[in-house]
Amino acid sequence: MTAQPKRLPKLSISQARRIALAAQGFDTPRPAKVDRRHLRKLMANQQVLQLDTIPIIARPQHLVPFSRLGPYDEATFDRVAYKDDEWFESWAHEAALIPMELEPYFRWRQADMAEKGHWSGEGMTPEYVELVHQALTEHGPLLTKELPDPGEKIGTDHAWGGRSQGRLALGRLFAIGRAGSRRVGNFERQYDIIERIVPDEIRAQLTPTRADAQRELLRRASKAIGVGTEACLADYFRIRNPEARPLIAELVEVGELIEVKVEGWEKPAFRAADSKLPRQIKASALLSPFDPVVWFRDRGEFLFDFRYRIEIYVPEKKREFGYYVLPYLQGERITARIDVKAERADGVLHVKGAWHEPHADPAEVAAGLATELGELARWQKLDQVVVATKGSLAPALRSAIGSNS
Q1: Nearest to residue 101, comparing CAs of 215, 238, 201, 195?
Q2: Alpha carbons 386 and 367: distance in angstroms, whole number
Q3: DSSP string computed for 218-244
C-alpha cells in the first residue's frame, strides 16, 4: 500500500505575517514610558540584537527597540547591556548582544574558532596572543590603544587597511571565548578577560554538547521568528543548515515545532507550538537594516513580498534606493522604504528619498510614515523632518509633513 503524503496544517500568508510580527513584539501597543522592564522583555522575545557601528540615524541595536517601543532613553539600554552585564557580546547573528544566560550555548562556536588556530596572513603567533591575554588579566579592562604593547600594524587584505597586532589578538581572544567586551565612549570596544564579564555561576555551568546547544538555539530562534523555513531557523543564530535539519526534525517530533504549509511558500515551514496568531497587527515602525524582521533577505521576499538589499557598500551611482534605507512596516505589510539621515548640525532628519511598494496606497502610507518620522526626529532630538523630491512616495510624504528641501 502506497504511503499517503502527510497533510500539513495550512496558514495563509496573512496569518504567517501576523505570527511572525507577534513573535517580534509588534502585537502590543508602545508603552507610554519605556523602562528597563521593556528592554528586558524585548531581549527575551528576540534573543539577539545585531551590532553595527553605523550611526546614520541611531546605532542599529538602538533602532530595533525604538521600532517596537517608540522613543526611549538610549543610556538605559547601555546600562542594562554594559554596566549591569545582563547581556553580553558574542558572535551570534554576526556580532551581537545576547542574554547572559546563553553564554554556555555558544561555547561550541568558540571551540570551532579555537581549532582554526591563528588567523592566516595576520602575522600573529600564539605566544603574542598569550601576552595580550596576560596584559588584559593584569591591567584590564582595556581599549586596544591602551594595551602596553599594541603591536605593529599588519595585513593589507582588510577593507579598512592594516590593523594592529594588538587589535587582532584581542579579536582572537574574543572569538575563542577567553575575552569579552563592553562598549564605552563613542561605541569603542573595551576588552576584559571573560571571567570579569560572565558571572561565575554561568561559567560554572556544564558545557552542552554541540547538538544540545544548537537544539536550544533553534528552539529560541523558533520562538523569536514565530514561523519560518528551515533556513530561517538556522540563519537566526548562524547554524549551518545540514546541522540544523535533524535538530529541527527532533523539535517537530517532540511537539515544540509544528510543520505547516504557508500560502505561496515552496518550502516547508515550521511554526513554534506556542506562537501567537493575533487577529491583526497595528504596527507603524521604521526598521533597521539589521532588524530580525528583514535581516534574512530571502525571508523578507517570501513573507512580505519585499525585496531588500543594503547598499552601503554599493558605489553611489549604482545604488537603486540609497545609502541607508529603512523599510517601513505598516500593519502587517512593509509598505515603503526611505533613504534617511540625521543631520545633527542642522537639527534635521533628512529623508533623501521615499518609495512606496506597489501594493500600497501612497496617501495612506504617507500619513502613517509622517507620524513615525516625527517620533523618530523627537527621539533623536532633531527639530524638523525635511523630505526631498526623490522617489514615488516623496510628493505624498512632503504633503503629509509639509516640508521642503
Answers
A1: 201
A2: 15
A3: HHHHHHHHSEEEHHHHHHHTT--HHHH
Tell which phi-psi region holds residue 121, choosing left (phi > 0), alpha (psi between -120 and 50) or beta. left
For residue 107 the three cell numbers come to 561555547
Query: Could you tell me where the DSSP H helices lie in 70-160?
Result: 74-78, 107-115, 126-139
Query: Mean pLDDT throughout 337-344?
Result: 96
Number of residues that this document lists for the chain = 405
Question: Which triple of cell numbers denotes residue 400?
Answer: 503629509
Res. 93 pLDDT band, cuts 50 70 90 = confident
Distance CA(120)–CA(126), nearest Å, equals 12
Pair type for strands 325-330 and 269-272? unpaired
- The whole-angstrom separation of Cα 270 and Cα 43 is 22
Beta-carbon count within 10 A of 86 CB: 17
Per DSSP bridges, beta strands 163-164 and 153-154 are antiparallel
Percent of the chain having pLDDT more than 70?
93
Q: What whole-number distance in Å separates Cα of residue 45 and Cα of residue 41?
A: 6
- Closest C-alpha among 229, 150, 140 to residue 192: 140
pLDDT (tens digit per residue) in 106-162: 999 999 998 876 554 456 788 889 999 999 999 989 998 898 877 666 654 444 445
Q: Is 223 exposed, middle or buried (CB count within 10 Å of its CB: 0-12, 13-18, 19+)? A: middle
CB environment 355-385: b (16+ within 10 A), e (fewer): bbbeebebeebbbbbbebbebbbebbebeeb
pTM strictly above 0.90: yes
Query: CA torsion sign, 1 to 246 to 206 to 126?
Result: positive
Rounded CA-CA distance 63/57 in Å is: 8
- By DSSP bridging, strand 333-343 and strand 325-330 are antiparallel
H or E segment and range at residue 334: strand 333-343
Q: How far apart are the first and last CA of the chain?
A: 72
63 neighbors 288 (Cβ within 8 angstroms): yes
Q: Sort 387 into a burial class: Cβ within 10 Å, 0-12 / 13-18 / 19+.
A: buried
Give the closest residue to 199 by CA, choosing from 98, 86, 279. 86
The three cell numbers locating residue 39:
528592554
Which H helix or E strand runs over 270?
Answer: strand 269-272
Strands 348-356 and 87-92: unpaired
